[in-house]
């Protein structure tokens, strides 16, 4: 399923939760794992110095320095490598983080990218405290042609990935690729697919009080749409459930995932009908990423998910 996995990391505790998932996934699916760390930003002009991404200090970079960074990466992940039996390729590079990550994705035909939602949890101004994901993750998820698995918190439900996969949809075109990825994954690994839609009554119906009969009619319509749009593509695959709830979408998705012991949530990167290159991470998936106790896969394009 995942022949090549890229784990993009700052090699700091902020990415430890993502590292746990990356090594475990590589072990289970016998994937080729590459650990990419963009350790410094280059100076302007033709200078050989870089600004270290962690210390903020200027360093002169040569082959010995790069080898030292690689050894540091091996040491940092030595325990996880030993426990999982996975020997990743350590790849330290200099550059702008999102540019280098996307450059590697383009040239290496990666099946899955794994990242943390943010990179500096010790910073009071960091994304965790502002309830938004980091700018590098935003830029990479927007442009990546493969699914991006985002890990924000310790994974408490996924004991052995993945058996209960939650697909959250709002029926937009952008959700079609997310469905293909979730369904393809379920078929290949024998997981159960939970297809979920939340009626957004809080925002769509602002100022309007709906009769219960109207809500129930909307739920039935969503159920029919789920069957026509997705179940019709599933052939004889019957290991699935459909659920329609009403409320604030990200809250309901998180509640549903907890109820079903979901170990992976799959959603479209955005819901607006615009060019994926221009779309920011949707507010619903962003809040799910930051609050979910399991990894969240953001799918932006059909490239790596179609049969």
TrEMBL record:
Protein name according to UniProt: UspA domain-containing protein
**InterPro entries, per this entry?**
Rossmann-like_a/b/a_fold (IPR014729), Universal_stress_UspA (IPR006015), UspA (IPR006016)
Which CDD domains would you find in this protein's record? USP-like
Member of which family?
Belongs to the universal stress protein A family.
Species this protein is from: Desulfococcus multivorans DSM 2059
Q: Which Pfam families match?
A: Usp
Matching SUPFAM superfamilies: Adenine nucleotide alpha hydrolases-like
Q: Where is the UspA domain?
A: 1-151, 163-298
